[in-house]
Amino acid sequence: MQRTPEDLDAIRQVVNQVLEAHAEEEGGQRSQARAEILIHSMYVFAQRGLARTTVQHLLDAAKVSRRTFYKYFRNKMDVLESIYRIFIDNMLLHFHQEMRQAQSVKEIITNTTEVYFNYHVSMGPVIKLMMEEARSSNSALAPHRVRAQQIAAEVLSSEISRLTQRDMEPLVMRTMLWILENYSLYIFENGEFSAQRLEQCRRTMIGIAESVVLGADATPGMLERPQS
């Protein structure tokens, strides 16, 4: 999988943003060497998969020494876990921003759905690898997946309840997040991105969410098959 300099810059911006925020919270400084290992490891994992990736592959991609690597990470799984945490933290940040700006439930549904899919597409096939790994209960990524879903579900329930005056069940929100998760895997089915599947999933997800939350006020025709 070849990446352009623009792709690399986009990933670097996300990683640096999250690491800087963590450094401020912890009163420390962000390590550029650690950031570069994370950035370049994304492509290695996406190309080779978790099982076929070794620490040496990560060293070669990031152009760092073994000593530098082990200063920040215990093993390759520790790297993948760090990448996944960055992905989750940035996703939750965008969710909060969109919900604060939304003026209606339809805006919340549309905007958060767009953010979810756009972010997944921008990160590429490594997302599929991480999401599949996180669904395994004995994986180091699993607790981060559960935490993210709990936070997102609670915030979505709270914001929708504020706008509709209905006491939304957080489990309903988590159910829709599970649907989104499965759609993200479907978009990268067989390891290749499909714009057609993306549009199909985006439209269907918005339709399902509006039907569940708004009922009769949902956008007409959102769940119907588009006319060819």
Automatic annotation (TrEMBL):
Q: What keyword terms does UniProt attach to this protein? A: DNA-binding
Every copy of the HTH tetR-type domain together lies at 31-91
The answer to whether UniProt assigns keyword DNA-binding to this entry is yes
Query: Which Gene3D superfamilies does the record match to this protein?
Result: Tetracycline Repressor, domain 2 (1.10.357.10)
Please list the residue ranges the record marks as binding DNA.
54-73
InterPro entries assigned: DNA-bd_HTH_TetR-type_CS, Homeodomain-like_sf, HTH-type_Tx_Regulator, HTH_TetR
Cited PANTHER family: ACREF/ENVCD OPERON REPRESSOR-RELATED, ACREF_ENVCD OPERON REPRESSOR-RELATED
What name does UniProt use for this protein? TetR family transcriptional regulator
Q: Which organism is it from?
A: Alloalcanivorax venustensis ISO4
